[in-house]
User: Which sequence fits this backbone?
């Protein structure tokens, strides 16, 4: 990158950093259901971010369903103090072998206002 280009990049970054931050929306909710998905390469903090974001939203009175898709169950184990939830895949396989139906209470758990399920891979 040329010196001029680098100077312009630094100027743009400084301008953006000094601009006013948008205020948080506090008006009426215009949509009944909002879906947030976080994805990316491994080890960048997705599970940590989702567990904390879910908890924070539940503490604000929002109804939250967290669905983890990690083979290690990191997302829900963070929420449940290190204890991994049984995954939907393993639970449905076990129930099917036993000739039993899977109920929502077999795969959905609640902690501090957050409902959580772990797909398991």
Assistant:
């Amino acid at each position: 990158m040329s010196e001029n280009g680098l100077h312009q990049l630094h100027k743009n970054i400084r301008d953006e950093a000094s601009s006013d931050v948008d205020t948080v929306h506090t008006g009426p909710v215009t949509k009944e259901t909002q879906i947030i998905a976080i994805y990316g390469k491994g080890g960048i903090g997705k599970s940590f971010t989702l567990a904390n974001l879910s908890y924070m939203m539940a503490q604000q009175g929002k109804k939250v369903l967290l669905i983890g898709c990690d083979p290690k169950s990191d997302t829900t184990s963070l929420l449940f103090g290190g204890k991994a939830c049984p995954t939907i895949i393993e639970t449905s396989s076990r129930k099917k072998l036993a000739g039993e139906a899977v109920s929502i209470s077999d795969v959905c758990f609640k902690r501090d206002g957050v409902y959580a399920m772990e797909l398991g891979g």
